[in-house]
Amino acid sequence: MSSKPSKDLETFDNPNPGRDYTIRIDVPEFTCLCPKTGQPDFATIHIEYIPSQKCVELKALKMYMWSFRDEGAFHEAVTNQILDDLVKATEPNFMRISAEFYVRGGIYTTVVADHRNPDWNMPELVTLP
């Protein structure tokens, strides 16, 4: 196998750092292990962020997400770890991670975690007619 899971999150320079815009990424094949039973947990991870100076490189993100496959993690912990790691790598103006875990024992779990740069002023919402 030529690719391996990795915790390294590569970035590249934001091509439009003077403009607030949103990047949305969906990762529908996220897996980790239940820390209690060792059974696999499956989730779709939704990433939304407004970059500042850096954007996350998608192949590196794919390898990063893959790195959780054999790790035990509570849903709440892994969602916040993903947010913390992505914020550390990209230093965005805003980032939200929504982790939608598939049914386990008749229960669905969704965990949402946000980060906001305290020096960033959110643009005014534009409502179109």
Walk me through this protein's architecture.
- β2 and β3 form a beta hairpin.
- Helices cover 19% and strands 38% of the residues.
- The protein has helices spanning 58-66, 75-90; strands spanning 11-13, 23-33, 40-50, 54-56, 94-104, 107-116.
- The strands form two sheets. It has a four-stranded antiparallel sheet, with helices on one face. Strands 1-4 form a two-stranded antiparallel ribbon.
What's the layout of helices and strands?
Blueprint (H helix, E strand, L loop, with lengths): L10 E3 L9 E11 L6 E11 L3 E3 L1 H9 L8 H16 L3 E11 L2 E10 L13
Antiparallel strand pairs: 1-4, 2-3, 3-5, 5-6
Short summary of the structure?
The chain has 129 residues and is an alpha+beta fold. Helices cover 19% and strands 38% of the residues.
Low-confidence stretches: none
- Sketch the topology as an H/E string, one letter per element: EEEEHHEE
Strand tally is 6
Strand order in the sheet with the most strands:
2-3-5-6
Overall outline = globular
Helix content: 10-25%
Question: How does the helix and strand content classify structurally?
Answer: alpha+beta
Rg value: 16 Å
Sheet-strand content, in percent, reads 35-45%
Distance between the termini: 53 Å
